[in-house]
Amino acid sequence: MDYVVKKIIIYGAGVIGCEYASIFTGLGYKVDLINNQDQLLNYLDSEISDAIAHDFRQFGVLIRSNEEIDHLETHDDYVVLHLKSGKRIKSDAILWSNGRSGNTEGLNLEAIGLKANGRGQLKVDDTYCTDVDNIYAAGDVIGWPSLASAAYDQGRCAAAFMVGDSDAEPVSSVPTGIYTIPEISCIGKTEQELTDEKVPYEVGQAFFKHLARAKLSVNVRAY
Predict the structure, then answer these.
(1) Superfamily for 7-96?
(2) SS3 139
(3) What is the pTM of this model?
(4) In this structure, what DSSP letter does residue 98 have?
(5) For residue 180, what are the contacts with CB-CB under 8 A and spacing of at least 6?
(6) Which CATH superfamily is domain 101-187 in?
(7) Long-range contacts (CB closer than 8 Å, 24 or more residues apart) made by 71-80
(8) Which of 1, 22, 69, 72 qualifies as a cystine partner to 181, CB 3.0-4.6 A?
(9) pLDDT tens digit string along 7-47?
């Protein structure tokens, strides 16, 4: 780019969009974060989702929820995003982060009787078998959760199912790391999911300000 960017639109408020929002606001950019959903990272526990949204607002990120693109107007040194709600947002640049696509375009899937969806991803059953009974798929090409750690386990499970291992189970509980500011990690079911399933649970909380890392950070900054 041959001009300085001070304001940026990030379209898509999934993991990637939120991580880049953290990066750009940390660098002093004014950030408009366009969220297609009614809540940031709505698959997380609602308390965590609310907390990251609160921190983003404290940092100056403007979150626009339940919004969808109508069209984009581009110029030499700025863009104008037109939303279906009628809003128009002018910015120096736009970062498109509205989901990943499977890298299947050059695989000639039609030749073996397979067809990818609009995102280039393949449909699989609980054994990672595709619509062709001797072809299996795992990792980003099947969609969620699109994490390397999950892909390794999915690949192992797919291999086990291929050879008829009756003890193999599909990957269901995936550890997630989200590198926003602050960082987020999770594994297992949320409080709402447990409530809906009538599973008793208890909540424990530990505050960052009580940890050694927080105290070290404060001391370094004070010095």
Answers:
(1) FAD/NAD(P)-binding domain (3.50.50.60)
(2) helix
(3) 0.82
(4) S
(5) 18, 19, 21, 22, 52
(6) FAD/NAD(P)-binding domain (3.50.50.60)
(7) 77/3, 79/9
(8) 22
(9) 999 999 999 999 999 999 999 999 999 999 999 998 899 99
